[in-house]
Amino acid sequence: MKCHLLAEQNLRDFCYASVPNSTFLKDARLQFNHISSLARALLILPDDVDMSWVWGALKLLNDLRNRYAHELDPDQSAIDTKIRKFKDLLSSIVDQEETYRGLTLPLRTYLGLFVGALSTCLYCGIELKKRRQS
Question: How do the pLDDT tens digits run along the chain, 134 residues long?
Fold first, then answer.
């Protein structure tokens, strides 16, 4: 899944930008769940920002990717359940935008919205850290 690769690259870029010597991190060749946990630990956001849905969606995305990548004959009902949960997590965010309210959106739209939200969240985390250091 390309979306998984985009999310992973965003997480890696964030982690590299958040540590003083990223060479050691790049050489570590961390797995997705390691880099995801590291990004979550490094991310500084205002207290009133709830990002739990992002981490939940990221886990579901990784579960979906693993089902496709590591199972010869993936269980379609399990995949459908994960997709439904992914869409449900993002639908509360999507429904805040009047334009999308009530529409049935394809999975690719939710995936695009998710990668954009993750990227924005991580970018804001980097900018907040820079401000606090100045």
Answer: 789 999 999 999 999 999 999 999 988 989 999 999 999 999 987 777 788 889 999 999 999 999 988 888 989 999 999 999 999 999 888 888 888 888 889 999 999 999 999 999 999 888 888 888 77
3-state helix, strand, coil in the chain (%, to 5): 75, 0, 25
Q: Report yes or no: 122 and 10 within 8 Å, Cβ to Cβ.
A: yes
Which sequence spans correspond to the domains of the chain?
Answer: 2-133
Spatial distance between the Cα atoms of 13 and 134, rounded to a whole number of angstroms: 21
Strand, coil or helix: 112: helix
Q: How far apart are CA 28 and CA 14, in angstroms?
A: 15
Q: Are 60 and 89 in contact (CB under 8 A)?
A: yes
Residue with tokens 């309210």: 101
Spatial separation of the C-alpha atoms in residues 49 and 40, rounded to whole Å: 14
Instruction: List Cβ neighbours of 60 (8 Å cut-off, separation of 6 or more).
Output: 82, 85, 86, 89
Nearest to 90 by CA among 66, 67, 107: 107
